[in-house]
Structures are given as C-alpha cells and as structure tokens.
Fold this sequence. Notes:
Blueprint: H1 3-11, E1 17-21, E2 24-29, E3 32-37, E4 44-48, H2 51-60, E5 65-67, H3 70-74, E6 77-81, H4 87-103
Helix pairs in contact: 1-4
Amino acid sequence: MTRDTFRRAALALPGAIESEHMHHPDFRVANRIFATLGSPDAGWGMVKVPPEEQHKLVEAMPEAFKPAAGAWGRQGSTLVRLTKAKPQVLTFALEMAWRLAQAKPARKKSA
C-alpha cells in the first residue's frame, strides 16, 4: 500500500474529502476525520475504528497495525504502516472508519 493508494481508497468513499489537520492530510466525511496520512512519518497512516475492531486488526496483522499512543489509541485511533498493510484489509478499515464517522453527530465548524 502506498500513500497514493491510501488517498485514492479514502477519497473513493461517498462524501469523503481531503483536508489538513496539524500539517498532515486528513480525510473527512460529515465534517469528521476518519483517517490521516503522514504521522508519525510519511510511511504511516491512521484510521479511526471502534476499539474492538482495532484489537482485531492489531492481533491479526501486528506488523501493519498498532494503536496510537494514549487516549487516542484507546478510543480506536489505529496507526497503519503502509508498506505492511494488505490493500483489502486497509480498504476494509477505511470503510469501517468512514461508517463510524458518519454515525456520530457532525461537529460544527468553528468561526
């Protein structure tokens, strides 16, 4: 999986847009971030999945997935080593993150 493949997969989801958060590309739906690229470095991405699904991903592919540090990780933010992620699995994780973001109420944009 490459950064471009990750980007294309995220943007292929209905209503997904690319934006920026803390100097990293992010992917949003319903004004909520469901994935990012480039943190902790260019070889990584992140998907926000339910914690129980995060556990399954990490257990099945520990070389590709790991929880983000701290509370973010405990809430489902999952780091993805792009070179180790299988495209089908990462696409599934992106879809899960996209669905989860839509299920939450949209955040209001700050002025």
